[in-house]
Amino acid sequence: MPERKPGEFGYEDVSLQAMGGEPGVRRLVDLFYDAMESRPGAQRIRAMHPEDMSESRDKLAAFLTGWLGGPKRFRERWGKIQIPVAHRHLDIGATERDAWLACMQVAIDAMSVSEGFRAYFMREIAVPANRVMTRD
Ligand code: HEM
User: Fold this and answer.
1) What is the mean pLDDT of residues 77-86?
2) Homologous superfamily of 14-131 in CATH?
3) Whose CA is nearest to atom 35 of ligand 1?
């Protein structure tokens, strides 16, 4: 992460607050998985997940809370995680990454956040999305 000044996205929990705090992250994740469950283009990545995605929802919300500069909820509940390692067993190429990011775009577009934060969030989330690819 480049150095951030007070008040900027990426500084302490400014991004978490811009998302609407922990309830906002939960809403984003619910919108994200709802999009994954309904978009034809996301069928392949949906099928990689367990039938019941409630734990997937809890885990992604917990992870993103810390990733946005908030409390490390994932570590508190499940211990240390390294995102690329957690996806090593999956077949993720550019198509799967793009399908995942498209669901995230649908989700963030439905959130009441500023345009500046929306653009920042999509730019930043593309970084780990590129790192979980296991081919291409
Ligand atoms: C870009 C394409 C991505 C795909 C296709 C994908 C797919 C998946 C799948 C299928 C699982 C469930 C694995 C299983 O049950 O065995 C999973 C778990 C998870 N993913 Fe992703 N993912 C992607 C990107 C990301 C990114 C960018 C993040 C974080 C910013 C993320 C965070 C997580 C977390 C926290 C888990 C739970 C890991 C655990 O069970 O310990 N994923 N992902």
Assistant:
1) 98
2) Globins (1.10.490.10)
3) 60
